[in-house]
Amino acid sequence: MAGDKKRGALFRQFGPHQQSRVTYAELFFDLVFVFAVTQISHTLLHNFTPLGALQTTLLFLAVWWVWVYTSWITNWLNPELTPVRVLLFLLMLGGLVLSTSIPKAFETRGLWFALAYAAMQVGRTAFLLASVPRTRPSTRMNAIRTLAWLSVSAVFWILGGFAEGQSRLLLWAVALGIEYLSAAVRFWIPKYGASSIEDWTVEGGHMAERAALFVIIALGESIVVTGATFSDLVWTGETVSAFVSVFIGSLVMWWIYFHVGAEAGSEQISRSSEPGRLARLAYTYLHLPIVAGIILSAVADELVLKHPTGHSDLKTVLSAIGGPLLFLLGTILFKHIIRGWLQLSHLTGIVALGILAWFAGGLSPLMLSILTNAIMIIVAAWESISLKTGAGRTQPEVTSA
Q1: Exposure on the CB side of residue 247, measured as CA atoms within 13 A
Q2: DSSP class of residue 278?
Q3: Neighbouring-strand partners of residue 393
Q4: How many helices and strands, by DSSP H and E, does the chain display?
Q5: Tens of pLDDT along 327-385?
Q6: pTM of the predicted model, to two decimals?
Q7: Domain ranges of the chain
Q8: Residues 120, 38: Cα–Cα separation, whole Å
Protein backbone atom coordinates (compact mmCIF):
# COMPACT_ATOMS: atom_id res chain seq x y z
CA MET A 1 0.00 0.00 0.00
CA ALA A 2 2.82 2.38 0.82
CA GLY A 3 4.41 1.63 -2.55
CA ASP A 4 1.13 2.46 -4.29
CA LYS A 5 0.92 5.81 -2.50
CA LYS A 6 4.50 6.59 -3.44
CA ARG A 7 3.89 5.81 -7.10
CA GLY A 8 0.61 7.68 -7.12
CA ALA A 9 2.33 10.76 -5.72
CA LEU A 10 3.97 11.27 -9.12
CA PHE A 11 0.59 12.10 -10.68
CA ARG A 12 -0.81 15.59 -11.04
CA GLN A 13 -3.63 16.51 -8.67
CA PHE A 14 -6.61 18.02 -10.48
CA GLY A 15 -9.11 20.08 -8.56
CA PRO A 16 -12.65 20.92 -9.73
CA HIS A 17 -11.63 24.50 -10.61
CA GLN A 18 -7.93 23.93 -11.06
CA GLN A 19 -6.12 24.03 -14.41
CA SER A 20 -2.80 22.29 -14.74
CA ARG A 21 -0.21 24.66 -16.13
CA VAL A 22 2.69 23.83 -18.41
CA THR A 23 5.82 23.56 -16.28
CA TYR A 24 9.30 24.94 -16.93
CA ALA A 25 10.60 21.38 -17.25
CA GLU A 26 8.18 20.79 -20.15
CA LEU A 27 9.26 24.04 -21.80
CA PHE A 28 12.89 23.00 -21.39
CA PHE A 29 12.08 19.63 -22.96
CA ASP A 30 10.48 21.40 -25.94
CA LEU A 31 13.78 23.10 -26.81
CA VAL A 32 15.01 19.82 -28.30
CA PHE A 33 12.13 19.90 -30.74
CA VAL A 34 13.03 23.39 -31.96
CA PHE A 35 16.20 21.74 -33.22
CA ALA A 36 14.27 18.74 -34.55
CA VAL A 37 11.92 20.95 -36.59
CA THR A 38 14.93 22.82 -38.02
CA GLN A 39 16.53 19.53 -38.99
CA ILE A 40 13.35 18.38 -40.73
CA SER A 41 12.94 21.57 -42.79
CA HIS A 42 16.60 21.60 -43.82
CA THR A 43 16.50 17.91 -44.73
CA LEU A 44 13.50 18.51 -46.99
CA LEU A 45 15.11 21.61 -48.50
CA HIS A 46 18.25 19.71 -49.50
CA ASN A 47 16.40 16.60 -50.67
CA PHE A 48 13.28 17.99 -52.33
CA THR A 49 12.44 14.96 -54.49
CA PRO A 50 9.45 12.60 -54.31
CA LEU A 51 11.53 10.08 -52.38
CA GLY A 52 13.07 12.79 -50.20
CA ALA A 53 9.63 14.22 -49.43
CA LEU A 54 8.36 10.75 -48.47
CA GLN A 55 11.34 10.14 -46.20
CA THR A 56 11.08 13.56 -44.57
CA THR A 57 7.35 13.10 -44.02
CA LEU A 58 8.02 9.82 -42.21
CA LEU A 59 10.65 11.49 -40.02
CA PHE A 60 8.29 14.37 -39.24
CA LEU A 61 5.51 11.98 -38.27
CA ALA A 62 7.92 10.19 -35.94
CA VAL A 63 9.10 13.44 -34.31
CA TRP A 64 5.52 14.62 -33.81
CA TRP A 65 4.45 11.26 -32.37
CA VAL A 66 7.24 11.07 -29.81
CA TRP A 67 6.50 14.63 -28.72
CA VAL A 68 2.73 14.20 -28.48
CA TYR A 69 3.03 10.95 -26.52
CA THR A 70 5.25 12.76 -24.03
CA SER A 71 2.66 15.53 -23.77
CA TRP A 72 -0.04 13.00 -22.92
CA ILE A 73 2.10 11.44 -20.20
CA THR A 74 3.10 14.77 -18.66
CA ASN A 75 -0.60 15.58 -18.60
CA TRP A 76 -0.83 12.81 -16.00
CA LEU A 77 2.58 12.84 -14.32
CA ASN A 78 3.80 15.94 -12.50
CA PRO A 79 7.03 17.36 -14.03
CA GLU A 80 7.60 19.41 -10.87
CA LEU A 81 8.65 16.19 -9.14
CA THR A 82 12.25 15.00 -9.42
CA PRO A 83 11.64 11.50 -10.88
CA VAL A 84 9.46 12.93 -13.67
CA ARG A 85 11.98 15.70 -14.33
CA VAL A 86 14.74 13.12 -14.65
CA LEU A 87 12.55 11.25 -17.13
CA LEU A 88 12.14 14.42 -19.21
CA PHE A 89 15.87 15.11 -19.12
CA LEU A 90 16.62 11.57 -20.33
CA LEU A 91 14.05 12.05 -23.08
CA MET A 92 15.81 15.28 -24.02
CA LEU A 93 19.05 13.35 -24.45
CA GLY A 94 17.27 10.81 -26.62
CA GLY A 95 15.64 13.66 -28.54
CA LEU A 96 19.02 15.23 -29.28
CA VAL A 97 20.31 11.92 -30.66
CA LEU A 98 17.10 11.59 -32.66
CA SER A 99 17.36 15.15 -34.03
CA THR A 100 21.03 14.97 -34.96
CA SER A 101 20.35 11.73 -36.82
CA ILE A 102 17.57 13.19 -39.00
CA PRO A 103 19.68 14.47 -41.96
CA LYS A 104 21.33 11.05 -42.40
CA ALA A 105 18.56 8.87 -41.03
CA PHE A 106 18.26 7.08 -44.38
CA GLU A 107 22.02 6.89 -44.80
CA THR A 108 24.59 6.20 -42.07
CA ARG A 109 22.64 7.11 -38.92
CA GLY A 110 19.52 5.04 -39.36
CA LEU A 111 20.26 2.74 -36.44
CA TRP A 112 20.96 5.71 -34.15
CA PHE A 113 17.62 7.26 -35.10
CA ALA A 114 15.78 3.98 -34.55
CA LEU A 115 17.41 3.23 -31.21
CA ALA A 116 16.78 6.74 -29.89
CA TYR A 117 13.15 6.71 -31.03
CA ALA A 118 12.39 3.23 -29.68
CA ALA A 119 14.12 3.97 -26.37
CA MET A 120 12.10 7.16 -25.92
CA GLN A 121 8.75 5.58 -26.74
CA VAL A 122 9.18 2.33 -24.82
CA GLY A 123 11.18 3.77 -21.92
CA ARG A 124 8.77 6.61 -21.24
CA THR A 125 5.74 4.29 -21.30
CA ALA A 126 7.49 1.76 -19.04
CA PHE A 127 8.13 4.60 -16.57
CA LEU A 128 4.43 5.46 -16.64
CA LEU A 129 3.49 1.85 -15.97
CA ALA A 130 5.90 1.67 -13.05
CA SER A 131 4.43 4.91 -11.65
CA VAL A 132 0.77 3.88 -11.71
CA PRO A 133 -0.68 2.72 -8.38
CA ARG A 134 -3.21 -0.10 -8.23
CA THR A 135 -5.84 2.46 -7.27
CA ARG A 136 -5.77 3.66 -10.90
CA PRO A 137 -6.65 0.47 -12.80
CA SER A 138 -7.78 2.22 -15.99
CA THR A 139 -4.56 4.24 -16.23
CA ARG A 140 -2.56 1.10 -15.53
CA MET A 141 -4.31 -0.76 -18.34
CA ASN A 142 -3.73 2.20 -20.67
CA ALA A 143 -0.02 1.97 -19.93
CA ILE A 144 0.02 -1.81 -20.50
CA ARG A 145 -1.83 -1.52 -23.82
CA THR A 146 0.34 1.35 -25.04
CA LEU A 147 3.54 -0.40 -24.03
CA ALA A 148 2.48 -3.54 -25.90
CA TRP A 149 1.91 -1.63 -29.15
CA LEU A 150 5.07 0.44 -28.83
CA SER A 151 7.16 -2.65 -28.10
CA VAL A 152 5.94 -4.25 -31.32
CA SER A 153 6.64 -1.12 -33.36
CA ALA A 154 10.10 -0.81 -31.76
CA VAL A 155 11.07 -4.13 -33.36
CA PHE A 156 10.35 -2.71 -36.82
CA TRP A 157 12.16 0.55 -36.03
CA ILE A 158 15.31 -1.32 -35.02
CA LEU A 159 15.09 -3.79 -37.92
CA GLY A 160 14.78 -0.77 -40.22
CA GLY A 161 17.86 0.74 -38.61
CA PHE A 162 19.86 -2.33 -39.64
CA ALA A 163 18.32 -2.40 -43.13
CA GLU A 164 19.23 -0.12 -46.02
CA GLY A 165 17.53 1.75 -48.83
CA GLN A 166 13.92 0.93 -49.60
CA SER A 167 13.83 -1.82 -46.99
CA ARG A 168 14.48 0.75 -44.25
CA LEU A 169 11.74 2.99 -45.57
CA LEU A 170 9.28 0.09 -45.70
CA LEU A 171 10.08 -1.22 -42.21
CA TRP A 172 9.87 2.25 -40.67
CA ALA A 173 6.58 2.90 -42.47
CA VAL A 174 5.22 -0.30 -40.92
CA ALA A 175 6.47 0.78 -37.48
CA LEU A 176 4.89 4.20 -37.82
CA GLY A 177 1.66 2.70 -39.16
CA ILE A 178 1.45 0.45 -36.10
CA GLU A 179 1.78 3.42 -33.77
CA TYR A 180 -0.73 5.66 -35.54
CA LEU A 181 -3.19 2.78 -35.89
CA SER A 182 -2.86 1.92 -32.20
CA ALA A 183 -4.38 5.21 -31.06
CA ALA A 184 -7.18 4.94 -33.63
CA VAL A 185 -8.20 1.49 -32.31
CA ARG A 186 -7.71 2.62 -28.70
CA PHE A 187 -4.76 0.29 -28.16
CA TRP A 188 -6.72 -2.93 -28.49
CA ILE A 189 -4.76 -5.98 -27.38
CA PRO A 190 -5.82 -9.64 -27.08
CA LYS A 191 -7.55 -10.67 -23.84
CA TYR A 192 -7.80 -7.10 -22.49
CA GLY A 193 -9.53 -5.54 -25.50
CA ALA A 194 -9.55 -1.80 -26.19
CA SER A 195 -9.63 1.09 -23.78
CA SER A 196 -12.69 3.31 -23.53
CA ILE A 197 -12.68 7.04 -24.11
CA GLU A 198 -13.52 7.51 -20.42
CA ASP A 199 -10.20 5.84 -19.55
CA TRP A 200 -8.27 8.69 -21.16
CA THR A 201 -8.78 11.39 -18.58
CA VAL A 202 -7.02 14.57 -19.64
CA GLU A 203 -6.68 18.11 -18.32
CA GLY A 204 -7.93 19.99 -21.36
CA GLY A 205 -6.27 23.34 -20.80
CA HIS A 206 -2.87 21.74 -20.37
CA MET A 207 -3.22 19.67 -23.55
CA ALA A 208 -4.34 22.68 -25.58
CA GLU A 209 -1.43 24.75 -24.30
CA ARG A 210 1.07 21.99 -25.12
CA ALA A 211 -0.16 21.79 -28.72
CA ALA A 212 -0.10 25.57 -29.06
CA LEU A 213 3.49 25.61 -27.84
CA PHE A 214 4.50 23.18 -30.58
CA VAL A 215 2.94 25.54 -33.13
CA ILE A 216 5.10 28.28 -31.58
CA ILE A 217 8.13 25.98 -31.98
CA ALA A 218 7.40 25.54 -35.69
CA LEU A 219 6.77 29.27 -36.22
CA GLY A 220 9.90 30.09 -34.25
CA GLU A 221 11.90 27.81 -36.52
CA SER A 222 10.64 29.71 -39.56
CA ILE A 223 11.69 32.99 -37.92
CA VAL A 224 15.15 31.57 -37.21
CA VAL A 225 15.50 30.39 -40.82
CA THR A 226 14.41 33.80 -42.07
CA GLY A 227 16.89 35.69 -39.90
CA ALA A 228 19.82 33.35 -40.49
CA THR A 229 19.32 33.28 -44.26
CA PHE A 230 18.79 37.04 -44.58
CA SER A 231 21.89 37.84 -42.53
CA ASP A 232 24.09 36.04 -45.09
CA LEU A 233 22.60 37.77 -48.14
CA VAL A 234 23.49 40.98 -49.93
CA TRP A 235 20.77 43.42 -48.90
CA THR A 236 19.17 44.59 -52.13
CA GLY A 237 15.66 45.84 -52.77
CA GLU A 238 14.54 42.34 -53.77
CA THR A 239 16.04 40.57 -50.77
CA VAL A 240 14.72 43.15 -48.31
CA SER A 241 11.25 42.84 -49.87
CA ALA A 242 11.49 39.06 -49.65
CA PHE A 243 12.56 39.33 -46.01
CA VAL A 244 9.54 41.47 -45.16
CA SER A 245 7.21 39.19 -47.11
CA VAL A 246 8.28 35.93 -45.44
CA PHE A 247 8.15 37.59 -42.01
CA ILE A 248 4.59 38.71 -42.68
CA GLY A 249 3.78 35.14 -43.74
CA SER A 250 4.84 33.81 -40.33
CA LEU A 251 2.96 36.59 -38.55
CA VAL A 252 -0.28 35.86 -40.42
CA MET A 253 -0.05 32.15 -39.62
CA TRP A 254 0.34 33.09 -35.96
CA TRP A 255 -2.73 35.32 -36.20
CA ILE A 256 -4.91 32.68 -37.86
CA TYR A 257 -4.05 30.07 -35.24
CA PHE A 258 -3.76 32.13 -32.06
CA HIS A 259 -6.11 35.12 -32.47
CA VAL A 260 -9.16 33.11 -31.44
CA GLY A 261 -8.69 29.44 -32.27
CA ALA A 262 -6.13 28.40 -29.66
CA GLU A 263 -8.02 29.97 -26.75
CA ALA A 264 -11.34 28.61 -27.98
CA GLY A 265 -9.80 25.15 -28.17
CA SER A 266 -8.58 25.37 -24.59
CA GLU A 267 -12.01 26.45 -23.35
CA GLN A 268 -13.87 23.82 -25.37
CA ILE A 269 -11.75 20.88 -24.26
CA SER A 270 -11.94 22.05 -20.65
CA ARG A 271 -15.77 22.00 -20.84
CA SER A 272 -16.08 18.82 -22.90
CA SER A 273 -17.69 15.75 -21.37
CA GLU A 274 -15.24 13.62 -23.39
CA PRO A 275 -11.93 15.50 -23.23
CA GLY A 276 -9.98 12.37 -24.18
CA ARG A 277 -11.81 12.01 -27.50
CA LEU A 278 -11.44 15.71 -28.26
CA ALA A 279 -7.74 15.73 -27.36
CA ARG A 280 -7.03 12.69 -29.52
CA LEU A 281 -8.71 14.15 -32.59
CA ALA A 282 -8.04 17.89 -32.28
CA TYR A 283 -4.55 17.86 -30.80
CA THR A 284 -3.03 14.47 -31.58
CA TYR A 285 -4.13 14.19 -35.22
CA LEU A 286 -5.43 17.51 -36.59
CA HIS A 287 -2.39 19.49 -35.51
CA LEU A 288 -0.25 17.40 -37.85
CA PRO A 289 -1.18 19.33 -41.03
CA ILE A 290 -0.94 22.62 -39.14
CA VAL A 291 2.65 22.01 -38.07
CA ALA A 292 3.56 20.38 -41.39
CA GLY A 293 2.27 23.45 -43.23
CA ILE A 294 4.42 25.76 -41.12
CA ILE A 295 7.52 23.62 -41.75
CA LEU A 296 6.87 23.49 -45.49
CA SER A 297 6.36 27.27 -45.50
CA ALA A 298 9.75 27.66 -43.79
CA VAL A 299 11.29 25.79 -46.73
CA ALA A 300 9.57 28.21 -49.10
CA ASP A 301 10.82 31.18 -47.06
CA GLU A 302 14.44 30.15 -47.51
CA LEU A 303 13.96 29.56 -51.25
CA VAL A 304 12.29 32.96 -51.71
CA LEU A 305 15.00 34.75 -49.74
CA LYS A 306 17.83 33.17 -51.72
CA HIS A 307 16.20 33.51 -55.15
CA PRO A 308 13.54 36.24 -55.09
CA THR A 309 13.65 36.98 -58.84
CA GLY A 310 13.15 34.90 -61.97
CA HIS A 311 10.51 32.23 -62.48
CA SER A 312 9.46 30.00 -59.63
CA ASP A 313 10.64 26.41 -60.02
CA LEU A 314 8.58 23.42 -58.97
CA LYS A 315 10.24 23.23 -55.55
CA THR A 316 9.31 26.84 -54.79
CA VAL A 317 5.75 26.48 -56.06
CA LEU A 318 5.09 23.29 -54.10
CA SER A 319 6.44 24.69 -50.85
CA ALA A 320 5.02 28.24 -51.20
CA ILE A 321 1.52 26.99 -52.07
CA GLY A 322 1.59 23.68 -50.20
CA GLY A 323 2.65 25.17 -46.87
CA PRO A 324 -0.26 27.61 -46.45
CA LEU A 325 -2.63 25.03 -47.99
CA LEU A 326 -1.74 22.39 -45.41
CA PHE A 327 -1.91 24.99 -42.65
CA LEU A 328 -5.39 26.16 -43.65
CA LEU A 329 -6.60 22.59 -44.07
CA GLY A 330 -5.42 21.74 -40.56
CA THR A 331 -6.82 24.89 -38.96
CA ILE A 332 -10.23 24.62 -40.61
CA LEU A 333 -10.62 21.03 -39.40
CA PHE A 334 -9.31 21.92 -35.94
CA LYS A 335 -11.67 24.88 -35.64
CA HIS A 336 -14.56 22.76 -36.93
CA ILE A 337 -14.01 20.34 -34.06
CA ILE A 338 -13.81 23.23 -31.62
CA ARG A 339 -16.60 25.46 -32.95
CA GLY A 340 -18.88 22.96 -34.64
CA TRP A 341 -18.93 24.76 -37.99
CA LEU A 342 -16.59 25.32 -40.91
CA GLN A 343 -15.00 28.73 -41.33
CA LEU A 344 -15.90 30.09 -44.78
CA SER A 345 -12.80 32.31 -44.82
CA HIS A 346 -10.55 29.24 -44.62
CA LEU A 347 -12.46 27.42 -47.36
CA THR A 348 -12.13 30.46 -49.61
CA GLY A 349 -8.41 30.68 -48.85
CA ILE A 350 -7.90 27.04 -49.78
CA VAL A 351 -9.70 27.55 -53.10
CA ALA A 352 -7.75 30.76 -53.80
CA LEU A 353 -4.43 29.01 -53.18
CA GLY A 354 -5.49 26.22 -55.54
CA ILE A 355 -6.25 28.79 -58.25
CA LEU A 356 -2.94 30.57 -57.64
CA ALA A 357 -1.10 27.29 -58.13
CA TRP A 358 -2.12 27.26 -61.81
CA PHE A 359 -0.25 30.51 -62.44
CA ALA A 360 2.54 30.17 -59.89
CA GLY A 361 5.19 28.87 -62.30
CA GLY A 362 5.09 32.12 -64.28
CA LEU A 363 5.57 34.30 -61.20
CA SER A 364 8.78 35.26 -59.44
CA PRO A 365 9.29 33.68 -56.02
CA LEU A 366 8.90 37.12 -54.43
CA MET A 367 5.61 37.80 -56.20
CA LEU A 368 4.38 34.31 -55.34
CA SER A 369 5.21 34.95 -51.68
CA ILE A 370 3.40 38.29 -51.74
CA LEU A 371 0.26 36.79 -53.31
CA THR A 372 0.11 33.83 -50.91
CA ASN A 373 0.49 36.27 -48.02
CA ALA A 374 -2.29 38.43 -49.45
CA ILE A 375 -4.60 35.41 -49.48
CA MET A 376 -3.67 34.51 -45.90
CA ILE A 377 -4.18 38.12 -44.74
CA ILE A 378 -7.67 38.12 -46.28
CA VAL A 379 -8.41 34.83 -44.49
CA ALA A 380 -7.24 36.25 -41.16
CA ALA A 381 -9.14 39.53 -41.53
CA TRP A 382 -12.30 37.81 -42.78
CA GLU A 383 -12.29 35.38 -39.87
CA SER A 384 -11.74 38.14 -37.30
CA ILE A 385 -14.61 40.21 -38.71
CA SER A 386 -16.97 37.24 -39.15
CA LEU A 387 -16.48 36.08 -35.56
CA LYS A 388 -17.46 39.52 -34.33
CA THR A 389 -20.57 39.68 -36.53
CA GLY A 390 -21.52 35.99 -36.36
CA ALA A 391 -21.14 35.55 -40.14
CA GLY A 392 -18.81 33.37 -42.17
CA ARG A 393 -20.11 29.90 -41.25
CA THR A 394 -20.94 27.14 -43.68
CA GLN A 395 -23.36 25.36 -41.34
CA PRO A 396 -25.24 26.03 -38.09
CA GLU A 397 -23.23 25.99 -34.89
CA VAL A 398 -23.39 22.88 -32.74
CA THR A 399 -22.34 22.65 -29.15
CA SER A 400 -21.33 19.01 -28.86
CA ALA A 401 -17.71 17.96 -29.15
Answers
A1: 10
A2: H
A3: 343
A4: 15, 0
A5: 999 999 998 888 777 889 999 999 999 999 999 999 999 999 999 999 999 999 998 88
A6: 0.89
A7: 2-199, 204-389
A8: 20
